[in-house]
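wait is this the right file?? whatever heres the structure
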């Protein structure tokens, strides 16, 4: 994405040069003004409409006062969040995809989380957000009897990045402080109000008309895996295995585990609705190893995962065969086409909590692999979870484990934990012995999880609405922040193959996906516009509200030089915010 960023910057510089020449030669109309790569288009149209809309002034003042209260709360929150994020960026710099510089730009194709496939929906949401934001400023100018010099739109080259209302400066300064504050708060209030409206529509009838299609949704395919060799691709939906219907990803995993045959017949439906049956010859390969637990590479020289050739000299082709072999031999030698390594087959422990019954028995930072509970063999993380689910708090159990490679046995009493069964108080690695193996090679796309986060299948209570609204903020970067394994950019191809349209808007067919995307990105853009404009720094609305609010407080204090005090406070807060924002974006790269 860095190459794309430089390409975008080069385009801006070229645009800047062309517009500068045009401005110097007088080729631009009077309504068009340029300053660097920023172009503004000014107009007088709309003033009459704003005058008419502003007539119920008592209502608008009440709405404006409510907006001021909301804005002040958000401003305080933004101040704390930006300062905290800046401090964290310096004290614990962890560069991630989220704080890459190009991801600050709301430009589809440049920002990693805003794909080109949804550029029309993003631009639509941005335009609507700018109209309601600046329309709010204009409306409250007239409510407060502040004259408007001009209105218009601001462009970054040819990309709409802002709208504006220019109050007549003398008229604004003559207005009372309350009118000015309501005018500055009106934009963010309208953005938040619009977000609520579109989210009500999105979480209600629109997402209510979308359901997860039957089958296992393929989010990605492992390069060099049996599935890849058979031609299964991202966006396919696996509907049958050996003629047996597959309901979802868990059903696929269970069916493959219970199927002993090396070759399986798999029916897939692609994003065009075409169904094909493919023959998959299963082979075991490594997908993951826990650092420090086993010494094994998860990639070969050509970038493909290493295939497992044998376990203790016995050839195995499926996970069922692999686990069956390990059950009889806790300590085994696994041979791959990338070398051999020793494996202790059991549940690898990632941590022992301080409240664990084992905390006093095992050394700190020891490598621990549990192989038996009460004499029952433990091979995988699932085995341990199932054994513990059948116990109760206060029950005594015998635990057999390899601690730093040596077999140990502990008699311990399970305690009361967060679940309704005995508590061992340990964190566990996936798979067996610190490794995860597969014999197929697809990653499930979390179709149901995303639909649930958008309100699918749930009632629209106030609490639920707030929960879903928060989810929407993080969905475009859900994979980057660890909420799921994938980011969500909306219902776009080939992801739409994982969903079907039904319910109250079923008559719209595939247009429901477009409607959902428009609402999703309009809400996302507007709520982020509102938050960003509440940053208490000039020239943002939050900076103006901070100034008028500070003036109101200082004017009531028995001090002289109130203007100096106000200027000192606003300057300090503004500089703090500027420094915090810079550290948020560039700190992880500078201090890492």
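ok assuming it is, sequence goes like this
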């Amino acid at each position: 994405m860095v190459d794309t960023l430089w390409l975008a910057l080069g385009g801006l510089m070229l645009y800047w040069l062309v517009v500068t020449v045009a401005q110097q030669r007088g080729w631009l109309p009077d309504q068009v003004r340029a300053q660097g790569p920023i172009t503004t288009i000014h107009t007088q149209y709309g003033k009459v409409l704003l005058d008419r809309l502003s007539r119920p002034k008592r209502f608008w003042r009440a709405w404006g006062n409510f907006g001021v209260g909301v804005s002040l709360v958000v401003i305080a929150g933004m101040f704390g969040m930006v300062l905290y994020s800046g401090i964290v960026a310096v004290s614990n710099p962890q560069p991630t995809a989220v704080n890459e510089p190009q991801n600050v730009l709301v430009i589809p194709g440049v920002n990693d989380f805003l794909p080109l496939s949804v550029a029309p929906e993003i631009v639509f949401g941005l335009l609507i957000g700018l109209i309601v934001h600046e329309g709010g400023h204009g409306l409250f100018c007239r409510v407060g009897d502040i004259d408007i010099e001009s209105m218009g739109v601001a462009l970054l080259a040819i990309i709409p990045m802002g709208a504006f209302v220019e109050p007549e400066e003398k008229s604004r300064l003559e207005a009372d402080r309350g009118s000015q504050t309501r005018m500055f708060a009106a934009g963010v209030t309208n953005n938040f109000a619009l977000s609520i409206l579109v989210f009500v529509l999105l979480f209600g009838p629109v997402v209510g008309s979308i359901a997860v299609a039957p089958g296992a949704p393929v989010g990605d395919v492992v390069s060099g895996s049996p599935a890849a060799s058979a031609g299964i691709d991202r966006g396919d939906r696996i509907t049958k295995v050996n003629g047996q219907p597959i309901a979802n990803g868990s059903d696929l995993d269970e069916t493959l585990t219970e199927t002993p045959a090396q070759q399986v017949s798999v029916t897939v439906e692609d994003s065009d609705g075409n169904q094909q049956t493919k023959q998959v010859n299963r082979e075991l390969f490594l997908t993951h190893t826990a650092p420090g637990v086993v010494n094994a590479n998860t990639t070969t020289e050509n970038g493909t995962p290493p295939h497992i050739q044998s376990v203790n000299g016995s050839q195995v082709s499926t996970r069922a065969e692999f686990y069956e072999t390990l059950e009889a031999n806790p300590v085994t030698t696994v041979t791959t086409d990338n070398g051999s390594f020793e494996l202790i087959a059991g549940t690898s422990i990632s941590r022992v909590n301080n409240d664990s019954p084992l905390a006093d028995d095992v050394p700190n930072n020891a490598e621990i692999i549990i192989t038996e509970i009460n004499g029952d063999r433990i091979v995988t993380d699932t085995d341990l979870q199932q054994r513990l689910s059948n116990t109760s708090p206060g029950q005594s159990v015998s635990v057999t484990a390899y601690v730093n490679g040596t077999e140990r046995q502990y008699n311990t009493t399970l305690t009361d934990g967060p679940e309704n069964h005995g508590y061992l108080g340990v964190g566990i690695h996936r798979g067996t012995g610190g490794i995860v193996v597969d014999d197929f090679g697809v990653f499930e796309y979390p179709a149901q999880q995303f639909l649930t986060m958008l309100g699918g299948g749930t009632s629209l209570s106030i609490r639920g609405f707030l929960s879903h609204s928060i989810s929407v903020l993080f969905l475009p970067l859900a994979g980057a922040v660890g909420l799921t394994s994938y980011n969500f950019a909306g219902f776009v191809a080939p992801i739409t193959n994982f969903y079907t349209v039904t319910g109250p808007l079923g008559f719209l067919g595939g247009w429901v996906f477009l409607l959902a995307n428009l609402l999703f990105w309009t809400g996302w853009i507007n709520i982020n516009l509102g938050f960003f404009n509440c940053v208490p720094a000039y020239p943002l609305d939050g900076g103006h509200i901070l100034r008028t609010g500070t003036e109101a407080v200082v004017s009531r204090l028995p001090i002289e030089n109130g203007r100096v005090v106000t200027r000192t406070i606003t300057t300090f807060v503004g500089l703090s915010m500027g420094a915090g924002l810079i550290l948020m974006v560039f700190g992880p790269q500078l201090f890492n």
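The two ends are 21 Å apart (CA to CA). so i think its the right one actually
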